[in-house]
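The protein record reproduced below.
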Amino acid sequence: MVKPTLLVLAAGMGSRYGSLKQMDGVGPNGEAIIDYSVYDAIRAGFGKVVFVIRHSFAQDFQEVFNAERFGHKIEVEYVFQELDYLPEGFTLPAERVKPWGTNHAVMMAKDAIREPFAVINADDFYGREAYQTIGDYLAQLEGSKGRYCMVGYQVNKTLSENGTVSRGVCTVDAEGNLTSMVERTQIERVNGTILFHDGGADEPLAEDTPVSMNLFGFTPDYFDHSEAFFKEFLAANISNLKSEFFIPLMVNKVISEGTATMRVLKTTSNWFGVTYKEDKPQLVAKIEELIEEGIYPKNLWNVAK
């Protein structure tokens, strides 16, 4: 079986932290969420991690997150996402400051990845089980095309106590494959019921409704499909300074056209992230709890600090 690669979307980190050296730690020795993601990926059989970053903070990032930090237990590579990395024939609008979105970030890794790969956000804590689940699935896909997957979280395990969240609400067929993914905004629990507020109406969501947290799995042919569709996207949207080429947009296209299937892998894991600054104490407490349960060692990389 092939060892899959973990693709970490981290190009937005520089703007959030200024310098990576001041980045928030969530573990007892200052470990970041990325540390736990890589640790879980190693345990799940991943052979390489590729970070999508920007040149503006590359030196700081590479000093922090490198093969030495991870005990040389996984191969580490870096690729770059910049606003002007566009296909031939397209010119960056002078007023554009917003990144081109998550699927543009994925495309930057085309020359670094030749095997099935998982995509994650740098600042989301997905849980050990989720990495094992997607790692096992991807390990069986060597040489395959169009057999994609995602980890579907139960919406009740992805909420914040400190405000509303946005989630990709998934519809799944009888075979366990995704049929559609719709972004729902302002999801929250109100008087015991999970609701999303769309167009002024409050609509309920079942507790176990599967949602996407941007934990996807692809085979390398996904890069070619993305490059082709990105040209169509730019032709229609390049003058819209707020337009973004998101992963769900690409996924919905290949599924609706029958180019690929996407298996929704179930997990009972809780997702944790820092959507609001008030979310951090809960994440820190959860990691402490997992350490006490023996899921993680207290010193993740066994490096004295």
User: Anything to note?
Assistant: The chain has a mean pLDDT of 92. The domain at 5-292 is CATH 3.90.550.10 (Spore Coat Polysaccharide Biosynthesis Protein SpsA; Chain A).
